[in-house]
């Protein structure tokens, strides 16, 4: 667990940001706390080495233009704009001085102008001045907004009441968004960044399977194009982009050739591993070629099985499972924190070209077994005779399966057809394979033996053959024969046959085109899957290969993919962040379940549980007894005003009677007192029109809701 202490200074009351910052530190597994400099003491705190900021591991400075130089609007006098420019220069100088003295990362965030007092023009001028003044200083970053978390509705950003009452200018929603943006930027500065992004193709770059649908059959719609744009941004920022796909390389290249207008092309791809080896092995091969450690890789794939295989075989790689829907996948990439880069240099932008021109290979790091991984898949293969309900699927498989279609057949003409249903611990694949057989003397001949590439390489094909061997043996047949006809696409089928203890025999009228691979029934029944132990060899110079192991050192710890995926899929907006913060406080739910509390009391209890150090356990608990103070009081008052539309009197709040029961009573009384005469008259007229029975029913309903 890493350690960091955040020091925060602001030109306004920013303490409500603390809860959200602490939430993110916990979410990222980072030890440390958040400390705030005194109110509106930005410059003294930056220039004093003994201040909260001088002792912090990272510094965050929050400013508003209106706080630094007043309200500067469009067409303002030169002296007003000059004052704002001078403030920007002074602040940049103080930030550089503090960062150089402390040797810690500094971040300044220019926060939105208040609707009543600030101006967009002043905000833009201050932001531009700071960006320009600090553009060459890598120790100080400038955050110009809370994107991509900033609420779209301005009313969800500003809290005029809390600003007027306690100089707390923003809502809980905006503080949650700002904290996310701040921590995300700091993480980009303080943690190692991956150098290589490796993307799957089928289901990631396009919809469909190119090996079955063909280069013209895959679909790259507008939402899928957004994924390409996100990856193109990674290339532009200096990351190496590689492809890793279980396909024929010529098919993948053809997709690129037929879509020349996509955001990136093959010239932007540093290296490819398109074939049928395990993807973990492919990634090791890429690392070997690029002379980079696996801990600098991010792997993106939509398949949970492929992701699990890579996590098992290459735990150093940050392996991320992409959502299957294109729009969700694009959003996932936008919220994938490890893909952020705090700064991009000219050298970064040249990195892809440099690697393409100077590819080097190192000595293989050794052999890797996949046996343990496949043993944990809990693969369940069910092979049954095909029924009428399978007719359409069997025809589709015969028509569309290419890579693992032993005979390349498109028609089924055997005496019996068996369909193959597969599932594992990740889910149900459905019917993915079939065999079409007939009996010929002492031989069970399979004219069709095919399997969708979705499950290829996991041992399904071996169980299909073992099923035929057992079937032949049970029927008193001596042999099993598999028809094979080479095609442009069925290299995986050829590779499978090469592992079998089979002899090749000509047979029938198609002997010139079709070879029959014949096994004894016993050998076929005994076939089992043995994951390949394939070393990755280097063809580079010997001196380069020898330097490989020292580059990586001891194996890296497993990458924190679960936290990255959780953030990229669940914590993508302020409402979701606030919900997660509430869920992290177990006392909140307990407080809301106190028996006998009225609806208003229950709401107050829930808020106090969220705001205070200790959760209330009774409606008679007092605000200050639970750790309340003036800032929390302002936050509570703002919630009351937003939810119930009333302002609480100070003479009620700063007394010993400031309990849940008393404040709930005041809220209810004020709601009634502030109800307009016209509204009351309308209510009385409505009551006058009701019968005694209807009034009794309303009263009883009100009592029941109050007791609930």
TrEMBL record:
<dbReference type="InterPro" id="IPR010033">
    <property type="entry name" value="HAD_SF_ppase_IIIC"/>
</dbReference>
<dbReference type="InterPro" id="IPR010037">
    <property type="entry name" value="FkbH_domain"/>
</dbReference>
<dbReference type="Pfam" id="PF00550">
    <property type="entry name" value="PP-binding"/>
</dbReference>
<protein>
    <recommendedName>
        <fullName>Carrier domain-containing protein</fullName>
    </recommendedName>
</protein>
<dbReference type="InterPro" id="IPR036736">
    <property type="entry name" value="ACP-like_sf"/>
</dbReference>
<feature type="domain" description="Carrier">
    <location>
        <begin position="595"/>
        <end position="671"/>
    </location>
</feature>
<dbReference type="InterPro" id="IPR009081">
    <property type="entry name" value="PP-bd_ACP"/>
</dbReference>
<dbReference type="InterPro" id="IPR036412">
    <property type="entry name" value="HAD-like_sf"/>
</dbReference>
<dbReference type="InterPro" id="IPR023214">
    <property type="entry name" value="HAD_sf"/>
</dbReference>
<dbReference type="InterPro" id="IPR036514">
    <property type="entry name" value="SGNH_hydro_sf"/>
</dbReference>
